[in-house]
Amino acid sequence: MATVGEENAISTAPPVASAPDKVEMESADVEKGSGELEGGAGTATLRETFMHATRQDFLLLFVGAVAALLNGVGDPLLIVLFSHTLSAMAFSSVDPTTFLQGGASNNVSESSESMRSINRLTLTLFGIGFGLQIVGTVQYLCYVKVSSRLSRKMRKAWYAALMRQDIGWYDDPGNNPAGLAAKMSSAMLTYEEGLGAKLAMGIQFFSGFAMSIIVALMYNFYITLLTLGLMPLIAVSLAWLVKLNSEQAQVKNRAYGAASAVAHESFTGLRTILSLGACGSFKKKYEASTEEARRVGVYTSLKLGIANGAMLASFNLLFMTIGLFSGWALQKQVNETGCDPAHGPGFPPTLNTLSIPCNKMFPVGDFSSGFGGIGIFIAMCCVAQAGQFLGSVSRAVDTFSQARKAVKEAVDVIGRKPAIDTKDEGGLRPTSMEGHVVFDKVSFSYPTRPGVKVCEKLCLELRPGTTLALAGASGSGKSTVVQLLQRFYDPREGRILLDGNDLRDLNVR
């Protein structure tokens, strides 16, 4: 062991990497960064996504979910009531034109009964609409309140976890402090959006989709089954679209986080960069950090266009199927009965003519009473609405999936316990210190470059009251020795003693 006296100087061993080694390591770092750009950090579980939720938050989520379910159920019911209102107006003894102009019927009693029926349906529509307004407000307030609270808690926990990490964690290029602020801001905005009103609307649209299918089956079984055969095509195109959107958002966040780090470094050291004429170098670094995102973004945008086209084509095919089936039924009736739909008494009675051939081909229900026409109209509207709801559900699921992906990195950092933990309450707490420092066969390499040993079997002893000067070429390990003494890092081998105590046994705080 080398004992260093007062005003003595020693030269540290220079086990630094040669130029080829450095180039090889830098190339590996670039490849690693590119892999991270495309690979992604995974998705947080539901437990991790709601890790900071309290009982009050879960209660608000439950109340908001119930309100969203009721809100979704109300839309198909409005279609049913609206259809019956039109039917009551059209099939009353009042001529539709006379009724709309405020005229009277020859049969006063039948006219009064029709008016009472229409008034009841209108009041029911108003009541349901007012109720849907209330439950819609409740679902919005509950989920926006919870999302803002969870976002604030997650942001604070993430920041506290960042302050807890050791220096070795920040040496990773993916954890560059200059890009963490932009990354945190973007991730928390996505997280709050995914858990807020859009999640509530996803529950609402799913409820509306299920209720629309049920109502359509109740009113016309055959039209519903015919159009449900196209649902797998819609579901596949929507699932593909959701997957592509998630991948694109992940690549964008990582790429622009790296670009933000380069921009931050450029602005903070602008004078130095200008004095050294390094503007071109930083420009190339910025372009390199966004080039991968541009390449992947162009390719992903092409696939997004195809997926969007497939989704819209499937919806158009759905509506076309409904129209063709109704037209075929109308043609069947004209051929068999010789009726002229152009002379129908009004819009709902014209729809009623479509039910007559269906009744002959599929003897289900009493179509002659007018219910068949209403049934076809309601089934058509509900199935079309179910298709729209399915598309809205996919967008809500996509937003929630992006929120889980965005918060995954925060969850990983929060759950990571660093080797040098500033929150650890254990360890020795000496009441006094003399300052006797000993490096006992210390070997060390940086976490990002484990194959390059900066210190190897280093032995030093610094007695209290003495001065030690470390001399050596740049990169020989002078600053590393000081950082080891400050316990920014722990040695790979050997130990560092302070007054006879291993630094790893002392309380960091």
From TrEMBL:
Protein name (database record): Phosphatidylcholine translocator
Skewed-composition ranges (Basic and acidic residues): 21-35
Gene Ontology molecular function, alphabetical: ABC-type oligopeptide transporter activity; ATP binding; ATP hydrolysis activity
InterPro entries in the record: ABC1_TM_dom, ABC1_TM_sf, ABC_transporter-like_ATP-bd, P-loop_NTPase, Type_1_exporter
Residue ranges crossing the lipid bilayer per the database entry: 58-82, 123-146, 195-215, 221-242, 304-330
GO biological process: oligopeptide export from mitochondrion
Originating species: Chloropicon roscoffensis
SUPFAM superfamilies the UniProt entry points to: ABC transporter transmembrane region, P-loop containing nucleoside triphosphate hydrolases
Superkingdom of this protein's organism: Eukaryota
Subcellular localization, as worded in the UniProt entry: Membrane
GO cellular component: a single term: mitochondrial inner membrane
Membrane topology per record: Multi-pass membrane protein
Domain ABC transmembrane type-1: 62-333
Principal cellular location given in the protein's record: membrane
Segments of this protein annotated with the region Disordered: 1-39
Keywords: Membrane, Repeat, Transmembrane, Transmembrane helix, Transport
